Amino acid sequence: MISKFRLIYHIEGIVQGVGFRPFVYTLALRFHLKGFVLNNSKGVIIEIEGFEESLDSFEQALFKELPPLARIDFWQKNRLTCKNDTRFEIRQSDEASTKSSLVLPDMSICDDCLKELYDPNNRRYHYFFINCTHCGPRYSIIKTVPYDRPYTSMQPFVMCEACQSEYTNPLDRRYHAQPISCPTCGPTLSLCSINGELLATNEAAIVKLADLINVGHIVALKGMGGFHLICDATSDRVLASLRERKHRPSKPFAVMFKTIEAIKEECILSAQEEEGICSLLRPIVLVKRNVKASKISGLIAPRIDRLGVFLPYTPLHVMLFEYLKNPIVATSANRSGEPIISEATVLKQKLHDVVEYYLDYNREIVNSSDDSVLQYLGDKTLLMRSSRGIAPKSFRVDSSDERKILAVGAHQKNAIAIYLNHQIIVSPYIGDLDNIASNELFEKMIERFSRFYDFTPDLIVGDLHPNYVSTQWAKRQNIPFVQVQHHYAHILSAMCEHKLSGKVLGIAWDGTGYGDDGTIWGGEFLVCDPSGYERVCFFEPFPLLGADASIKEIKRILASLLWDVLGDEADALLLDYFDEKALKRLKQIYTKKINSPLCSSVGRLFDAVAVLCGMEGNVSYDGESGLLIEALYDPAITDRYTFEIDDKMIRYKPMFAQMLHDKEPRLIASKFINTLVEMALTISHRYTYPIVLGGGVFQNRTLMEQILQNVTQPLYFPLQLAINDGGICVGQIYKSLQK
């Protein structure tokens, strides 16, 4: 006699809001099995009963045929007593006391919905909020888990009979798609002037908005995670006006194109870049611009050879392009340095002098997020901003620690992370904590994660810097607080992602980070493992004249370095960059060491080199110097500057005198990059450990490519986490998990 068995599966991972339960339901029907599946606060529970052969087939299919967005991180199977169920069903969510089911990122429109959007016979033809279980909003609409409609901003929209039928049919693609709606029952669009005058609604509003863009107006459009500022990307006149209104002299704008073919007309793409641009994540991808063939305004990305490009990712953006003539600038609507704006009232208050018209809709954005930004190194991703489509980012770690841990990250490009139920969950990008709005978002993000997961930390982990907003916030919480050195955390984040537990040589290069000795680090070679680190080599420090003043007025850095090398002989040379009175004042600061902390940052060296390469005025955005030097790099130039390594210190300063002799920017930039590569390789050859890279300097694609081509040891860097300070929170948690 063939016996029946009953099994229970506890499954954790990305298994809610991705069509996982109907997937299980269809498998159960296929293999003639009985039982049920339901969501709970940790993931999904399956109880399933049938003959052994059918159960084996079910389990194989469960792991091999997952829905596009689903991911199983952990599963457990046990045998139960048979209950002789007569059918398989999807049951209502189980609300348990502990919430740890993962909140998903928002996803771009899928191919099936795109086909329906263009099908005149479909009831969602030209419906600007079309979605299904494989695409559409998640993070931006959710208030808490489990991910069910009453806990989202779709709760006020009562489904019509047709939508309700799809929502309750386990065999339908929209089964329990929480944002499901249609023109009959869904949110509506409204186009208004910045003064609040209603001009059009729904599809007519999209047509009118496109007309306004086509004739040169600057508008705002409410996207998935907030408002985009939008204008014609081919018009110098419009771009000049946008830069003037935004007080954004040179920071590049991202450009949205209608199709991948349109991007190929403007840019040179690798196969990996094309695949990334077209992926369901729809990130902004930095690619090489074909300047000679470009119709895009030169004011989009002045002085650099890269362009941030992406494709429409919501049906609303797709519809807009049906009526546009050209590619568009689509950049976060915000005041400089502040978070993206997600409410029309705030838009009118803060950007009334920038925007002329705005397209809004009446579904609340509960959780705002920016667009994600990345670039490719061959087939590897180099993540620069982790947000829409990517974050919240979760991954399971091998730890038995039962504590709840909050990591508050760094100061610039801040993101937070929590550790809960053996998972690390990383927030979307928050930004630089330099203003009230960003500081408020930092605290709101912590509140969001507390709300999602009923999370109260047993431990908080942060940066060593005593003046960081995140550090000061943590110290006020009356919760145990541990601090982790900035550059060590950079290396630990990559070690955590790649599951490295042995010793590595960490190379951490960035703009700033508080060192153990109270000086500013940023050119670090650390032999480390999860238990600790040794600073085995670093760049010779120089005085950062006026501290933060040098970070904006970067010619101060050049002055400091030249005085260190040439002494008073540098005065005459520096008159090319300063008037006599300003130089005299700066020399006093240098001589008397007034507010001039020592700094070993490689990021600041890029600033000094950029000045010698012709960069004038103040830096207007982070990474500007690196992008300029990268644009000047000539692979045909293989020479480099001389340097010495004295025990633990790299003595490089004489190369700045050599740069004065070289004069030609292309030569200076190329030799500088080559020198940094040689420094990294020289120190690496001292050790047999794997190499781990971290820090914002390694966002420089040319530098990374040269190191990757020449290093002989195994080399790791973050692929799923931001390589800049946005990934530091993971390193902070990884350190706190070590016993």
UniProtKB/TrEMBL annotation:
Residues 203-389 form the YrdC-like domain. It comes from the Bacteria. It catalyses: an acyl phosphate + H2O = a carboxylate + phosphate + H(+); C-terminal L-cysteinyl-[HypE protein] + carbamoyl phosphate + ATP + H2O = C-terminal S-carboxamide-L-cysteinyl-[HypE protein] + AMP + phosphate + diphosphate + H(+). Transmembrane segments: none annotated. The active site is at residues 21, 39. InterPro entries: Acylphosphatase-like_dom, Acylphosphatase-like_dom_sf, Acylphosphatase_CS, Carbamoyltrans_HypF-like, Carbamoyltransferase_HypF, DHBP_synth_RibB-like_a/b_dom, HypF_C, HypF_C_2. It holds the Pfam family Acylphosphatase. Pathway: Protein modification; [NiFe] hydrogenase maturation. GO terms for biological process: protein maturation. Gene3D superfamilies: 3.30.110.120, 3.30.420.360, 3.30.420.40, 3.90.870.50. This is Carbamoyltransferase. It comes from Sulfurospirillum diekertiae.
